[in-house]
Amino acid sequence: MADKTIGQLPQISQVTDSSLLPVEDTGTAYHSSGAQWKQFVRDSVAGDVAAATAAAEDAVDAAASASQDATAAERSRQAIEDMGITSQVLSAGSVPTLSRTESGGVVTLHFGLAPGPQGPAGVGLQGPQGPQGPKGDTGTAVAVETTGMYYFSVDNDSSSPTFGHLFLTYTGSQAPNFTINAQGHLIWTVS
């Protein structure tokens, strides 16, 4: 066969293990078989395939671990949400207590708390003065003449002449005019 370049050679339709292929290595031409090329490709990608397989297995493991972590986190969240708390007031000066019980997967924390010492009395501001109450009933004033003497009753409808009365003595030819005004003052007018 005359010298030809590789590009001038006819193209093979299918490479088999027995196919001969030209190879150049450091300036020297050789021939190689299809089987050698197949083994070369296998060897070349074996490390990549192993690394890819390991990475895939790691990804599967990580996904399983993440799923387990997510399940554990959900269980932890649910346990916290379902957690119960009780409290009990202990006698003054007691040491605080904390205990834990579990029933049906639900945890309950039991706190025992003692009251602290009495704090100082608070100081508040003086409140505003309330409105004035309604005016009370007005007493009945009665003037009665008894031998040159008048007495005034200032109690309500009292029939006793010796209880709650004001006695006034006067001299003169005419009886004085006694009244009690709306402010409760005794008005004595001599006519």
Please explain how this structure is put together.
This protein is α+β, with helices and mostly antiparallel strands. It folds into 3 domains: 19-81; 83-113, no CATH class; 142-189, no CATH class. It has 1 helix and 10 strands; from the N terminus they run ββαββββββββ. It is rod-shaped.
Layout of SSEs?
Elements: E1 20-25, E2 28-33, H1 34-82, E3 84-89, E4 97-103, E5 106-113, E6 142-146, E7 149-153, E8 165-169, E9 177-180, E10 186-189
Properties at a glance:
191 residues; alpha+beta; three-stranded mixed sheet
Low-confidence segments: 145-157, 161-165
The number of distinct structural domains comes to: 3
Order of helices and strands: EEHEEEEEEEE
Count of runs of 4 or more consecutive helical residues: 1
Strand content: 25-35%
Give the helix level as a range of percent: 25-40%
For the termini, the CA-CA separation is: 174 Å
Number of strands: 10
Gyration radius from CA atoms, angstroms: 60 Å
Instruction: Quote the average pLDDT.
Output: 75
Q: Which structural class matches the secondary elements?
A: alpha+beta
Largest sheet: 3 strands, mixed
